[in-house]
TrEMBL record:
Keywords: Signal
Matches recorded under Pfam families: OMP_b-brl
InterPro entries in alphabetical order: Beta-barrel_OMP, OMP/PagP_B-barrel
Domain Outer membrane protein beta-barrel: 25-229
Gene3D superfamilies per UniProt: 2.40.160.20
Signal peptide interval: 1-23
Name of this protein: Outer membrane beta-barrel protein
Phylogenetic classification of the source organism: Bacteria, Pseudomonadati, Pseudomonadota, Alphaproteobacteria, Hyphomicrobiales
């Protein structure tokens, strides 16, 4: 009799375990574990760039004054002039600055930049209706720029350590024209003129280390207008004291770096719960 009760209890336990196992198979799967969003971070960084700019000059004009220094008008003397050509060379540049990374997608910085002297060349053709004289003037000078910019950038995302970005900047361009010579006739004193400047940028940043990044970028830079000082002639009379004016812009290629003083935090991993 005792053996029969033991067998009955063993069968009941085995049957209950089998039922529990089958019931567990019928339960819904556990809810998925939500991955936390990537941690936001911020901090100061140092930056520097070097590159070359293909400078564009537009709106060029040479202004022979309406009256020379003796009071004689240009038209009354029978002189007529027209632009012949105007060109400007490329500029190299370097900059340095500091900025702040506000989060994983937005940063802003302030930079100071020096742009080397570009070769300025221009010419006009002229004629005198009374004498039949035909000739022209040839000019040369150097144009350099000191640039101070405040820039904002949007980092679009990071794939395999490469981060595309776009940006916009505003600031001040101190444009300088120096050594302006009217060949054979006279020279003008050097002049520096401050202008509003703006820029749009795009490029790629390579994450060399969590703190150090290398950037390759393009920038369109508008540096405003520049007007020279009047040209003082070698001859004491009959000098028209002309000035030159033009607008400056540049297509820049930049290679730079950024060094962050705060290392971005490691991503937070969720705790895995066993069911």
């Amino acid at each position: 009799m005792g053996n029969s009760k033991a067998l009955f209890l063993a069968a009941a336990v085995a049957s209950g375990a089998s039922f529990a196992a089958n019931a567990a198979d019928l339960l819904p799967p556990p809810p998925p574990i939500d991955m936390p969003p990537p941690p936001e971070y911020g901090g100061w960084y140092l930056r520097g760039d070097a590159g070359v700019g293909a400078v564009q000059m537009s709106g060029w004009r040479s202004t022979l004054q309406a009256y020379d220094e003796t009071g004689q008008s240009l038209a009354a003397s029978g002189n007529y002039i027209a632009p012949a050509f105007a060109s400007i060379g490329d500029q190299g540049f370097v900059d340095i600055g500091f900025g702040y990374q506000f989060n994983s997608w937005f940063r802003a910085d302030i930079t100071g930049e020096y742009r080397t002297e570009a070769s300025y060349r221009a010419g006009i053709v002229g004629a005198n209706a009374f004498s039949g004289w035909v000739g022209g003037d040839y000019y040369n000078a150097g144009v350099s720029t000191a640039l101070f910019m405040a820039n904002g950038y949007v980092d679009i995302g990071t794939w395999h350590g490469v981060t595309p970005f776009v940006g916009f900047g505003v600031g001040i361009a101190d444009n300088r024209i120096s050594g302006l010579v009217d060949t054979g006739f006279g020279v003008a004193a050097d002049k520096t003129q401050a202008n509003f400047a703006w820029a749009v940028m795009a490029g790629l940043a390579l994450n060399v280390t969590p703190n150090f990044k290398v950037e390759l970028g393009y920038r369109y830079l508008d540096m405003g207008s520049l007007t020279s000082n009047p040209i003082s002639c070698i001859s004491p009379t009959g000098c028209w004291r002309e000035t030159h004016s033009f607008h400056l812009a540049s297509n820049d290629l930049r290679l730079g770096f950024r060094y962050a003083f705060n290392e971005p935090p490691m991503p937070v991993r969720p705790l895995i719960t066993k069911y």
